[in-house]
Design goal:
Blueprint (H helix, E strand, L loop, with lengths): L3 E6 L8 H9 L10 E7 L6 E7 L8 H5 L5 E3 L5 E3 L9 H5 L6 E3 L24 E3 L5 H5 L5 H5 L5 E5 L6 H8 L3 E2 L5 E4 L7 H5 L8 H4 L21 H11 L7 H13 L5
Parallel strand pairs: 1-10
Antiparallel strand pairs: 1-8, 2-3, 4-5, 6-7, 9-10
Amino acid sequence: MTKYGMVIDLTRCTGCQTCVVTCQMNNNQRPGVSWSAVDTIEEGIWPDGDRFQLPHACMHCDDAPCVHACPTGASAQRDDGIVTVDYDTCLACGACVMVCPYEARHISFKDAWYFGADEPAPYESYGTPHTDVAEKCIFCAERVDDGALPHCVEACPMAARLFGDVSDPSSEISAYIEANNAENLRGTSLYYVKGDHDFSLREALMTNESNVPAIVRSEAAPAGPAGETQGPNAAVIGVGAVAVAAVAAGAGFAAGASRGKKHAHDVVEGKEGE
């Protein structure tokens, strides 16, 4: 069975942000929303320190906590491993945002345009707009289904990204993983070629630790040959409570979607009660 994955080669990435821009343009992302990001990582002490670029987006977890937490089923996982979002059934309740260990989820509200304008600029109308929903990288699933590559992979000027079937040992991506000793954060669909950079993928990428159970952050489970372990993807622990809270956050949705989603936005942004 096909299992899609992505390799990001840190020895090739220059931090040019092309992946971020093409993702924003082709998915019409609102101000403050970025499905893809490139962080600058600095370690050590000068003159022996290390500085490099670390691109990241949705990790497409094998046992995705966002899928378990979603109270409507809007977040789902395909047989090929891609985690998708059904924008027609999403309530923007924020449950997926709260449980994502990688801060890969965002709430997009339609009252946000660049420069405070009442209408979108021409370049803001490019692509498919999603409003009043939770959104994230979906590996450009519609393009993949048509036999094309995700926009970020196609646009990268340094060929720092590869995408394909990691379950097929004869695929280009599988050969690249083996030849370049790419490391997988176990339990996800992302592989990184680290080169000489000595750092922990878990520590660098799992940034939303305050909102996930301690077991996810635990180093108790040893790393195996496939790379650093993510630990049990146990943001699913207690997601029933999260889902209930999410439904409560969007309780006004049935009576008025706009009011329910605005409340969910306040919960996610920490503005509730102001």
